[in-house]
Amino acid sequence: LSTSTVTGDHEAAPAHPLGLLRVQGGYVVSAPRWIQPSEQGVEIGALATGEGDITDVGDDVSARHAHVWCDDQNAWYVEDLSSTNGTVVVNGATNVCTQVEPGRRAQLNPGDELRLGESTTYAILLGAL
User: Fold this and answer.
1) Which of 2, 50, 69, 102 gets the most CB atoms within 10 Å of its CB?
2) Which domain holds residue 34?
3) Which stretches in the chain have pLDDT values below 50?
4) How much is the pLDDT for 13?
5) Is residue 91 part of a domain?
6) Contact 89, 100 (CB under 8 A)
C-alpha cells in the first residue's frame, strides 16, 4: 500500500539551519552563529569544547550552560544543562518568557530570544537551505 500526499502523509521537508545572533542593549554584537540541523546539536557555554560549540557568552554563563538541537520533526529545541543562572526563551510573537528547567526542553522559533543568565541574549534566526 502506498500513502497519498493528498491525505497529508509526506516526508518532512529538510530542516533549515538555526542562527544565533548575539545582541546586547538592543545592538548586534557578533556575526550570527549557524547551527546545522542534527540531533547532536551544539552546546553553549563558557567552556564548551565540542566542534561547533558556542563560547561567545557573558561572565555569568556556565561552563556547559545549554544544549541546542534539531529533532527528527525538524523542530529546534534548547535544554538547560543545570546552569547556575538559568536559561529563558522569550517568544517573539507573544513576549511570553519560558524558564527552561534542567532536563526539560523548550522549542526555539525564528523571532524568539534565547537568554542565558543575565548577560547573554541571542536572537533566533532561520537560515536558508
Assistant:
1) 69
2) 14-118
3) 1-8, 10
4) 66
5) yes
6) yes
For residue 65, give every residue at least 6 positions away whose Cβ sits within 8 Å of its Cβ, in sequence order, or none.
43, 44, 45, 46, 48, 57, 80, 81, 83, 87, 116, 117
Sequence-ordered strand ranges (E) for 25-119:
27-28, 33-35, 42-44, 66-70, 76-80, 87-90, 97-99, 105-108, 113-116
Q: What is the pLDDT of residue 116?
A: 98
Report yes or no on 47 lying in a domain: yes
Query: Considering the domain boundaries, does residue 127 fall inside one?
Result: no
Taking a C-beta distance cutoff of 8 angstroms, is the pair 64, 47 a contact? yes
Q: Tell me the torsion sign for CA atoms 39, 69, 100, 110.
A: negative
C-alpha cell at 9: 502523509
C-alpha cell at 15: 530542516
Q: Would you state the cell numbers that stand for residue 29, as one nine-digit string?
A: 554584537
Q: Is residue 8 part of a domain?
A: no
Query: Domain holding 71: CATH number?
Result: 2.60.200.20
Number of domains present in the structure of the chain: 1
Distance CA 88, CA 79 (A): 10
